[in-house]
Design brief:
By secondary structure, the protein is mainly α. The chain is built from 1 helix and no strands.
């Protein structure tokens, strides 16, 4: 069976894909954490 060159049976992710996912998660966390901290500060002041 002849497969095109771009199709392979390799399983898993490449290092580049894993690094990109880690970078995206880091960006999302750097946006979400300050907003969450600010929200909890606002809730403390509202008491």
């Amino acid at each position: 069976m002849l497969l095109p060159k771009f199709v392979s049976n390799d399983k898993g992710f490449t290092l580049v894909e894993l690094i990109m996912v880690i970078v995206i998660i880091g960006i999302l966390a750097s946006i979400a954490v300050p907003k969450f901290v600010n929200l909890s500060d606002s809730a403390e002041r509202a008491k």
